[in-house]
Amino acid sequence: MKILVSVKRVVDFNVKVRVKADGTGVETANVKMSMNPFDEIALEEAVRLKEAGVATEIVVVSCGVQACQETLRTALAIGADRAILVNTDAELQPLAVAKLLKAVSEREKPQLVIMGKQAIDDDANQTGQMLAALLGWPQATFASKIRLEADRAVVTREVDGGLETDAIKLPAVVTTDLRLNEPRYVTLPNIMKAKKKALEVLTPDALGVDVTPRLTTLKVVEPAKRKAGVKVADAKALVDKLRNDAKVI
Amino acid sequence: MAVLVVAEHDSKSVRKATLNAVAAAQKLGSDIHVLIAGHEAGAAAKAAAQIAGVAKVLHADAPQLRDFLAENVAATVVSVAKNYSHLLAPSTSNGKNVMPRVAALLDVQQISDIVAVEGADSFVRPIYAGNALATVKSRDPLKVITVRTTAFDAVAAAGGDAAVEKLAAPADSGLSSFVGRELSKSERPELTAAKIIVSGGRGMASGENFTKVLEPLADRLGAAMGASRAAVDAGFVPNDWQVGQTGKIVAPDLYVAVGISGAIQHLAGMKDSRVIVAINKDEEAPIFQVADYGVVGDLFQIVPTLVEELKK
Lengths: 249, 312
Description:
The complex is a heterodimer. By secondary structure, chain A is an alpha/beta fold. Chain A has helices spanning 37-51, 68-78, 94-108, 127-135, 188-194, 204-207, 235-245, and strands at residues 2-6, 9-11, 33-35, 57-64, 82-87, 112-116, 139-148, 152-159, 162-169, 172-176, 199-202, 215-221, 230-231.
C-alpha cells in the first residue's frame, strides 16, 4: 500500500510570534522554522505502518517556498521514501493546498493520505477534509488510532465528548491528533541517507491548479494583553479575593 | 439572502454551542435558518424552533445522518447551500469535521473559528495559537464559517417560534460507517459550557490525584474539570479534558489552573476566561503572567486547604 503524507513548514511551536509593526502579518524573518507537529505525527504513523509491513511506499509532499525542501529532507530522514515539493512563492490557503494535493494524489494514486489535523500557524483545520471532499473519498479526522484492514481503515477519533470510531473505505484521508503516536528523533545516519533520496519539484502551473487566494488579510493585530494579577499568600487569602474582589464565587 | 446555522445537537436537544453560532449569525443581519441533520431528532428540531431569532428550521431526518458522518452531513448541507449567503457552524469537533468538506465541495475557502463579524464578508480570527488576530475579507460569493463559541454570547434558547420544514437527505455515501463511541461519563457541567473550570496539569503527578485532590475542589465549586496537554499525554485523564490551542477553547467566569505551567498552547485555550487563578510551586511559571490571583506553593497542601476554606 502506498501512503501519501503532506507536511507544512511552519514557525516552530516554541517560538513566541510577534505581530509586525505595520500590521500585515507576523514576523517570520530569522525565526526558527520546523515541520508542523501534527504532520510529524502523520509521518511517524506512515513509517510505523511501513515497518509493520502494511505500507510499501511513503511519498511525502509539501507545498510552498524553496525552503520547504529542508522540511522534506527531514521527512525523508524520518523514513519517507521520496519527496515532492510543489514550489510556489504565492500565499497558499487551505483550499489551494487541497487542490494541489488532489493533483498529486491523482498522479501518485495512494491508498491512504495521512496529514496533520491543523497547522499551528494559521490554525485552520481544513486541508484534510477539503482534500477528501475534492477526491470524493471518505475522511477520518482527529485520529488517535488507525487500524488498516484489506479495503478499509478503522479509525478512532478524538471528539468533544470522548472517542468515536468510524470505518472508512480506502482510499481515504486521515488527519492526526496528538495521541496517535510519539514521533521519533531523526538520527544522523538517516539524515545522511535522506540526502540521496529523490526529491521532485513541481509547480502549481504544471499541476494545472489555480492557487489564487480567496481571503485577503486586511490587518493583523496583537490581542489585548491580560494584566498579570497579584500573588496571594495562601488559600484563605485566595477565597477572600474570589468572594469579595472578583465576586466569582 | 438568509444565513444557515448547522446545529450541534444530541437528537433530544440543541447544544449550547448552537446558540453561540446563532449569536454570530445575528451579526450578519439576515434571516437565520437552522439545520438539524440527524435521525429521530424531532425533539432537537422542536428545540431549535424555539431559539430566539431563528426564522426557520430545516429538519433532515434519515438513518444515514444519525451519527453525523461528515460525508453524509456535508452532502445534506451542500444540497441547500444555494439558498444562503453564509453557512455557519460552531467550532465543535463535528463543525470542524464537516464544514471544510462542505466548503471544498462548493469551491469556497472556509473562514475558521471567527471571533468577530466585521461585515458580511469580513471576519476576525485568531492565528498562531491566538497570539495574533487576523481580519480577513472573503471574495467567495458564499461564505463558509466556523464560530469560536466563547467569542459570542449565547442567544436565548426560548422565545422563538420558527416553522419546521422537512428536508430530504441525499442518499448514504456508502464511504464511511459508524463503529462506536466511548464517551466520558460525568455528572459535571460540560467543559465548554461551564461557568467554573478546575484544571490540572503535569504537577498533579497522577490520575489518582485528579480524583483525590482536584475533584473535591471541583465538587465544591460546581465546576467542570479540564487538563493541560501534558496531563492528557501522560494518561492522567481522557483526551476530551484537554484545554488549549488544539483542544477545547474555554472562557468561564473562573478558571483555576492547578499544577499547570502555562505553555503558549495551553494559554491559547483559556486566556479569555474572566478570572484566572493559578496554583503552582514554580513562581516563575508563565501561568502567573495571565493569572489574576496566584498562589505559589505545593498544590497538595493548598488545594485541600482551599476546599476547607470554601466550606466556611
